[in-house]
Amino acid sequence: MNRKRIERLWRLEGHRLPPRRQKRSGKRAQGSGENSSRNRPALSVNHTWSYDFVSATTRRSGPIRILNVVDEFSRRSLGSCVSRSIGAAAVIRHLSKLFAIHGHPQAIRSDNGREFIATSVVSWLATYGVQAVFIEKASPQQNPFVERFNGTMRRDLLDVEEFDSVLEARVLVDAWNLEYNTQRPHRGLGFMTPLAYARSHNVAAR
């Protein structure tokens, strides 16, 4: 007797095979539509940030990841992390740097990527009183500000530039962020740039 014969006889007797157990990796998605930007809008500068990844490649060495962080109220890019790989520890390091520069928000919105839902990240945010809010799974429209920012970066930079190295990508991404904040008026901001809009709300934006 072998496994296949036993399975065949089991079926002939009208029994169902027990489902195969699948190994789970990491935490389950925990987002909700209640955490969308429509239901939880940003009310002021540093009220709600959002962050997400966008991918790119270098000409010689392959793929890179870019973690973008945006202040939803002012649409301002707060800073990008560019690296070959970005795990939970790198997310914490990047946010720590941004908190030192810009202060910290009341909440930060994201999808259910494993780097964002990691216990280490959520717990670290809680030490600053920052609530991690997660949108519904497979619903990027619930996190539109960083999604729109990523799309603009993709169209205007990543699809038109070739990077020879991670270092070159970091330099060009930082330069593009500066241009985005200081030279690109937004209709939704009364045709002000993100930096000017943040400053108009009595924030010493950097």
Compute the number of structural domains. 1
CATH architectural grouping:
2-Layer Sandwich
Shape: globular
Let me know the number of strands.
5
The largest sheet, given as strand count, sense and whether it forms a barrel, is: 5 strands, mixed
Distance between the termini: 73 Å
> For the largest beta sheet, what order do the strands appear in spatially?
3-2-1-4-5
Q: Please state the average pLDDT score.
A: 91
What's the CATH H-level homologous superfamily? Answer: Ribonuclease H-like superfamily/Ribonuclease H
Low-confidence stretches: none
Helix segment tally: 7
Instruction: Please compute the radius of gyration using only Cα atoms.
Output: 22 Å
CATH topology: Nucleotidyltransferase, domain 5
Tell me the helix content.
Answer: 25-40%
Q: State the order of secondary-structure elements, H for helix, E for strand.
A: HEEEHEHHEHHH
CATH hierarchy, class: Alpha Beta
Strand content: 15-25%
Q: What is the SS-derived class?
A: alpha/beta
